[in-house]
Structures are given as C-alpha cells and as structure tokens.
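Run AIP/AIPL N-terminal FKBP-type PPIase domain-containing protein through structure prediction, thanks.
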Amino acid sequence: MADPPVKKALVYPGKKEVEFKNEAKAIFHFTTFKCDQKTGEYVEVDNSRKFTKPMELIIGRSFKLEVWETCIKTMNLEEVSDFFVEKHLVTCYPLVAKTLRDAFLPGEKKKSHQHEGHKGHRCGAAMMHEKTGYKDLDALMDDPTDLKFRIELLKVEQPGEFEKESWIMKDEEKLESVGKLKEKGNSSYKEGDHDAAAKIYAEAIGRLEQLLLREKPGTVESNHLEDLKIPLLLNYSQCKLLSGEHYEVIEHTTQVLKREPENVKALFRRGKAHAAVWNPKEAEDDFEKAASLDPSLREVVRKELDLLRQRSRERDALDKDKFKMLF
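Sure, done. The structure for AIP/AIPL N-terminal FKBP-type PPIase domain-containing protein is below.
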C-alpha cells in the first residue's frame, strides 16, 4: 500500500479540540523546511515568527496552498505538529511564499532573501527571468522537493467572532461593509479624530473601487457604486482639509466634480484648498461658482474672497519690496 502524500508527526498535543466551521479563521505560525535531496536533512525556508504577524487562513475559501487547510483541520488548539508533504502537493509554495514575504517580512530581512538588485516591482521580462525575485524560492521552483511544515495552531475564530478584512469578503459583504465604515468614520469625525476618520473613509472608498473593477463603466451597477463614493470622497476631503493636506483635498474633490460638476461642498472645499496652496484664480473660480449655486454661502464666500484678495495685496507688496532691494 502506498504511503499517504501527507504524514503527520505530533510535537505537542495542544489543549482542546476545536470545531472548524466554514468561514472560520485559523490563526497559526508555520515554519517551512526543504528536504535536502543529498543528505535527507531539512533546511529552514520560511518562518512566520519573522513576519510582522501570524498567518491567517479562512476555512473553506480555497486557499492556494490547499494542503495547509487539510493539515490545520486535523489539529487541536495550541497543538504543534510536523507535516511531511510530498512535492506534487506543494508546487505552488514558492509563489505563496513570495506573496507572504512581500506582505509581511520586515524590510531588512526581505532584502537578505532577494536577488541582488531585486526591487518590489519589476517588468514582465524580469519576472519571467527571476520568477519570484527570491533566490531560494526560484531554486525551489526549478527543482521541486518535498516540504515539511511545522504548524502551531494559535487560535480559531468562528464566523461572526471577527471583523472580516476586505480580501476575505464576498462582494455582497464588501458592499454592506461600506455603509458600516461610513458610520464608523462619522463617529470618529464627531469625536474630533480626523486622522482616524480619514483612514476609515479611505478604506470604504477602496472597497468600492475593488467592486467597481468587476463592473463595466456606465452600467446601472457601476453608476450606483460611483454614487456611493461621492459622500465618502467629500468626508475624506473634509478630514484632509482640517489636517492641512490640501493637495489631497484638491485631488478627491476633483473626482467628485467630474461626476457632479455642481456639487457645492466639493467646490467650496476645493476652493479652500486652492487658496491654501496659493492657486488664487482656481480658488476664486470655485468659491464664486459655489456661491452662485447656493446663495446661502454668499456671505461665507465673500469673507473667503476678501481674505484671498488681502493675501494677494500683501504678496504683491512683498514682491515690490524684494524688487527694490535688487537696485
């Protein structure tokens, strides 16, 4: 009878059995060892304890390295076991490891693994030549071998016990999460934590942009997602205006105005940002258009324009003084 392609050797039995429901999150540490075909000894390839966070895997989500889920589902909580896996089950390991190293390996440790001159982003020709950009992983791609994984199961969180990250979510979950993020951002804004609010709004915008990648521009679905972005872009711009990041404000309010050219909030906030970075003509145009669309803003806009013109006179006077000093 042939040997099984995965063999398990218990190192530490753990504390208790755990149920692995579909969509549960398993959190674990792993160490990968490559079998030296000459000596039969195992040499360390990767160790998640050197990463910035433990590994996480969602049960039932068809993780690229399927054998990890198979192994983990045999384990107790806090168990440590070695899994000896035949090479035909781990041919994708180099690409999985590249992704993990790029995401979670600290800078200096990452550099020590990489090819000389390797950068995070490379052209297609370089990718074909180097494969992963890591010498040991490229060698493993060229000469596949059996691997040993030492896995320590740290924690299992059942569905509903954890907040899903964006990459885990299905499209409908991602869309539902946008409204919740907006409410969370609004709460942070009301508490005066504008930086936290901006990060939350940015996360919500990012999720909508991920969903937009799946839709054809101009369709009902695409237009709906674009409309959902508008208040988030405005809220994000307000946070950045308060934190003095004026070019961010100009960029994101301009996105709004491409879709809604008469959006008064976008015009006024962009006008403020243009004034702050001394684009006086652009600021004046935005302020005046905002006031023409919303007469209730006329007094506020008048004050902004007065400040703008006062600054202009002061700058002109300063320039004249500098010019006189040249002669």
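DSSP finds twelve helices and six strands in the chain.
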